[in-house]
Model the fold of this input.
Amino acid sequence: MPEELAPTREVDVRIAPNGGLALDGGEILPAAVQRVTFYGTPRGDGSNVVLVTHALTGSSRVAEWWPGVVGRGCLIDTDRLCVVGINALGGCYGSTGPASPAADGRPYGSRFPVLTVRDLVRAQRLALRALGIERIAAVIGGSLGGMQALAWGVESPEAVDLVVAIGASGALTPLSVGVSSTARAAIANDPNFKGGDYYDGEPPAAGLDIARRLGMLTYKSERLLLERFGRRSDRKGEEPQAGLWARFDVEGYLAHQGEIFVRRIDANTHLVLSKAMELFDLDRDYGSAETAGARMLARTVLVGIGSDWLFPPTQVHQTWRRLRDGGADAAYLEMASDHGHDAFLAEPESLSRLLAPMLAPLYARERRADGALA
Amino acid sequence: MPEELAPTREVDVRIAPNGGLALDGGEILPAAVQRVTFYGTPRGDGSNVVLVTHALTGSSRVAEWWPGVVGRGCLIDTDRLCVVGINALGGCYGSTGPASPAADGRPYGSRFPVLTVRDLVRAQRLALRALGIERIAAVIGGSLGGMQALAWGVESPEAVDLVVAIGASGALTPLSVGVSSTARAAIANDPNFKGGDYYDGEPPAAGLDIARRLGMLTYKSERLLLERFGRRSDRKGEEPQAGLWARFDVEGYLAHQGEIFVRRIDANTHLVLSKAMELFDLDRDYGSAETAGARMLARTVLVGIGSDWLFPPTQVHQTWRRLRDGGADAAYLEMASDHGHDAFLAEPESLSRLLAPMLAPLYARERRADGALA
Done:
């Protein structure tokens, strides 16, 4: 595993300082901030810039959460490209989100608007523009990050040459919407949630814990869980039959994941970004996925993950076919994996082997890295 | 759809009046009640008796919750057989459960013991015995009811001739344990739950609602949800992008299911029976599924449901193979369905066509129904 990279530069960019950011839902978000992290230095024409978009729980520090994929000598090679991460609008890692102060100085909380994936992408575009970057070479992401990559290709066809969307389709299935919205309902039910205005009290940790457990289940495949946990008792020694709350190993794992999560994610961020993911829909947003495909100019690569049940590969394949039928220059690849949705994070070598030929054009035009690395 | 049948007889049987019922967990449950419903009249030798075991949310009124399968002229024909239903121990439809008074006259609540599927089945056996029925012709059930049917075959091999388990395997997968235990955790997190001792206050309805939504998602297939709801807006007119809590149609459906559920199920019953389902494990309980199979004498039929992800047909098939390898006279059938786990309830005609040949021996030895129907 390559060692973790320090960013070359990290900056908080104020976007739309005049008039604010007009959102898909009709609201205006005044003076939003985007936290932008650079690994490497962008060329003036942006031709060495690869934007990596994050999933539900990521940050702008893309080399931290995507080790083995982003880094020195990796698939997305920080020695040869300028890799950029931006904390999504609505996030809790530096960009404007529900915990940020509104005009009255108090956190937005329940007043934070509904966001769409298009809103996230427009904010990213504005942030890059403010930094002098009008075009980028590529946008690459998995899950919600993959939806953002697709939205970049449709919304800013002239601004990007290569779109790579991994474990992401044109819309969540109703099963996935069902799980995601039930996870959100569990947060809303937490008495600490207070409709979203909990910043002066305890956070809704119990609800967020449930949401995370459900998330983790959708990120893993049945087979992975069978292999990793089987029906073993909790590794801390509990026998599951010892009491109503005594656990199997898989329960201990989920509880542990929930526990970590509530310390690092703001519940409102989870709600806002989950909702954006549920809403993303090429058919709803553009009339049809084919129409969306007709707008795309970038080379577009969709990657289905064999054992993914959050974004079933059949759905990713269908999105590819429809974008292509609409006229997009699109390719479909399938990542053979037993891991489930999370394979794009958990199996960097396999993903890198699969995608290396697709990213080769990025490197062909780079003679050498010309950015100074910290 | 055949019209609903009135039971011939319904009786609350006190079992283990002396000494109480010894449970797998080591506790003794004093003087438990079993609510038993008859459709038809049992012959003295029990040779016309078919016990129908219920799933998580069922009752002894089997013709009510399994229309089209149990009834006049149906697969399980109340005109020709004596059909018996028993509310499971731990239930909330007449049998002793967490809401029942303990020795001190107050509801058990948190004091109710952990139950296993074997405990449920032993209680049923004792109830039938108390009614003079030592042997039965068949035991048939789906889901948790199918686990009970299998446990009948292993625990009381001499007492039953035919075991039919539908959408049930030798143990839940860790994915299913994960979803089920997360649903339980959502109940426990409800501030009204009070550790299970909520009977003098409001019930933990919000937690039970989340549990039911998750349950419903595991009972339906991805394809069914796609066909039935797609990505349509809530049928009451909400547009999902209108707000964080505005809904897709699938969310409205889940919320509606949750709402109905909290009025008809006691949360503690849901916890106790879910836990029994999570614990059931032929390997843990008998050393191996093969050893369990070696104990079985009844003709045993396992039915996998094609699109079931709570009890994947691959798991049901594996249980069948292992029981058979152990020596059981077992058959495997697969119900082709896009519906998901609930197909055994939702597609009675299809299930009946599949199982009719397996139930034919029951009818061959019945010349005519000899019970009086109410």
The first helix of chain B runs from residue 62 to 65. Chain B has a mean pLDDT of 95. The first strand of chain B starts at residue 9 and ends at 14.
